Amino acid sequence: MVILSAPPVHVGRLQKVLLGLFAAQAVWTAASLFWATSLSNTWEETNRTLFYAVTIALVFAAVRWTGSKGMRVLTALVIGTVVIVGLVIVIRLSTMADPTRFFAHSRLQYPISYFNALAALLMIGFWLALGTASGIDGAWRAAGGESRRHVLLLAMQPLLLALSVFLFQLALLPQSRGAFWTFFLALPFFVIFSPNRFRALVHLAIVALPMALFWSTINDVYSSFNDRIPLETALGSAFRAMGYSVLIVAAAWAASWLVERVIGPLSRRLAVLIGVVLVVLAAGGVIGGLVYADVRSGGLDEYLSEQWTELTSDRGTGAAGDTRFTELALNGRVQQWKVAAQAFEDNPVLGVGAQNYEFYYYQHRVTLTDVKQPHSQPMQLLAELGLPGLLLWLAFFFVAVVRTAMLRFRSDDRMTKAVLAAGLTAVISWFIHSSADWLWQMAATSLPAMMLLGGLVGAGPAASPAKPSFASRRHLTRPVLAFLALAVIVSAALPYLSLRYSSLASGSPDLKTMTTRAQTAASIDPTATLPFVVRANAHWLAAVQAPEGSMERVAQFMQAAESWAAATEREPGGWLYHYKSAEMLLAARDASFAAGVSSSEELLNLARTYLDKARGLNPLAPQIAALEQGLQDDALD
Predict the structure, then answer these.
(1) What is the C-alpha to C-alpha distance for residues 12 and 461, in angstroms, rounded to an integer?
(2) Rg for the chain (alpha carbons), in Å?
(3) Which one of 60, 246, 359, 564 is most buried, counting C-beta atoms within 10 A?
(4) What is the DSSP letter of 299?
(5) pTM for this structure?
(6) Is 2 helix (H, G, I), strand (E, B) or coil?
(7) pLDDT tens, 299-321?
(8) At CA 250, angle to CA 244 and CA 253, rounded to 5?
(9) Nearest one of 152, 238, 167, 154 to 207, comparing CA atoms
(10) pLDDT tens string 217-251
(11) CA proximity to 123, closest of 437, 407, 542, 553
């Protein structure tokens, strides 16, 4: 409907290139269906990429239609959404009887179910709120007088700063080291892109003040699990600290505003002088901190060496401290990146197929850590889509950033500069964090980032009327776009319907209904393995409920084995399916032996075949080793 009824959009040459780059990445992702091990995983990743592509295209068109106002509305929308998420978190944790179920390993994971993704989302809102605040002054002065708009704009700045400190403090509860260290990496971009750097630094100092004052109080939520302090008590203190922080920010902003009204606008010379003094103080603080660290640690060289060893190790010290932020271990990421690099060396052009890293990983891992992605979007693209996939993504992102930076420095409007700078900092923060985590797969975090990227690509002068030559081609372009949109809908709908029927099958009251629904699910999505998993589990449950020594028990175990074997045909690289096939065949052998049937040796040999295949796909799996040991013990008996 949007494609057929929307007005034409004027698209610049560089914007066409950017949209084409992301479209090419989506096409390359879909093309990997021809060489991927798991078609189901690749189809899922294709739909995810298409979803992001549609999001970017729609936001791009909306911003082109509305001009600079569109980017401001988009920024407000994302900030508002993140703030609502934050308020929901506070309300739920404050009112529920057992808030511990929203935590895992002492870390908040509600409502996204992954700590790092939650922290990354909150930090996107933080950078947008903090960055936008610095543009309020220009809009406020442009309003002039004491009009209602003038007063509203004046109130917006402390509100945005209060939201900034609220989101930042809330982002500490997931104890995400990725989000925490990404803050320091994104900070220089915030300073560089902010339209009024001095004011931006003042705002940052205002936000940092309550952060420093209540740092330990917020971190007590994490340490309360180890110190056996009631979580409700720690949360109550943390939420009160957040309330005090908002008041402190409002008071500090009011004081700075009054000082500025008294002394008037700073001259350029005085601003430069103050800036130099701040830089000198910061440099002195860094030098003093290094000297203090050298004395406190007994030798900075040795200390840094120890920290580097921890950074590159698979695991940290394991000590239960008051915070995770002081630990530097990458928790196995180095090994995961090494396997991704090895996959790239083996398949430098095509890769192993979109979202197929896990199959290569299980074959080549050297630790027992189970992962499905290498915890790095660039490394995952390199392993799964080869060099073309990585270059398309990096070209899209960096060209979009450079183009937006040029727009920001060329713009004459202070508010437009601030909104572009805030959007840039937010997407750069997301990109840095996603380079060491699997945020791409978490739509709750990555969708706002894709919306911002679509808005930044579409930013610029308002759309001008289409040229006649373009208008004359609209009768050709729009049907093609409508067909592509329909293809995207169908591509996403088929897996969803298959998943739905699989869910219905798992809750079926009898085996006949279950089989019918599972067959429907398997026919809707020709790559899905879940319908066979549902059938296998249902037959296994029927087998264990059947009487010992009965042929019914044998038959149900055999049907379970057949279902797992059917899953291996659709996903031949799935070690678990081969393992479960062997396990069910061995269960059928034992049941047939108990029933006095003479096919036990044939079942044993077939089970060994599947088990050997599983061993080749996952040599380090402890489950496979245990089953093999059981077979050896049976042979000795």
Answers:
(1) 10
(2) 29
(3) 564
(4) -
(5) 0.90
(6) helix
(7) 656 656 665 666 666 665 544 46
(8) 135
(9) 167
(10) 999 999 888 877 889 999 999 999 999 999 999 99
(11) 437
